[in-house]
Write a structure and sequence with these properties.
By secondary structure, the chain is of the alpha+beta class. About 35% of the residues lie in helices and about 10% in strands. It has a single domain, classed as NAD(P)-binding Rossmann-like Domain (Rossmann fold, 3-Layer(aba) Sandwich). The protein is globular and about 45 Å long. It binds nicotinamide-adenine-dinucleotide. Nicotinamide-adenine-dinucleotide binds next to helix 3.
């Protein structure tokens, strides 16, 4: 963001149990930063973000990332890590 002051950076995050707002303390007041509370499991959330901002590139890091949790309950892993990526790709296309 420091090196590309003309680019807007939009963070899209559902803030699940791993999301931590404190990680964003340094950037939240930055003029070219925006935050969208959205869920990759909801196509409407993604398309709303795409229509609100002129998105030119996507860096996809959102995930159910705790492998141990997938053993106890796999549903969110399928919904976010597989279907969520498909939702994102289809909307981007
Ligand atoms: N941390 C590492 O060292 C590392 C190394 C290699 C690869 N990765 C990969 O990078 C990705 C991110 O890892 P991390 O360590 O930052 O994970 P993390 O669990 O800390 O962060 C994941 C983020 O995704 C968000 N999220 C989860 N489900 C969502 C949904 N349905 N919609 C929108 N947002 C959602 C969470 O709120 C959280 O902010 C994962 O795919 C992981 O496998 C991480």
């Amino acid at each position: 963001m420091r090196h590309h002051p003309d680019d807007l950076v939009v963070k899209f995050d559902a803030f699940t149990y791993t999301g931590n707002l404190e990680n964003l303390e340094d950037v939240k007041v930055h003029p070219n930063y925006r935050f969208v509370h959205g869920d990759l499991q909801k196509t409407m959330d993604i398309s709303k973000a795409f229509s609100e901002y002129n998105v030119e590139a996507v860096i996809h890091l959102a995930a159910e990332s705790h492998a141990d949790r997938s053993i106890h309950d796999h549903a969110d892993f399928i919904e976010t890590n597989i279907k969520g990526i498909l939702n994102l790709l289809e909307t981007a296309r």
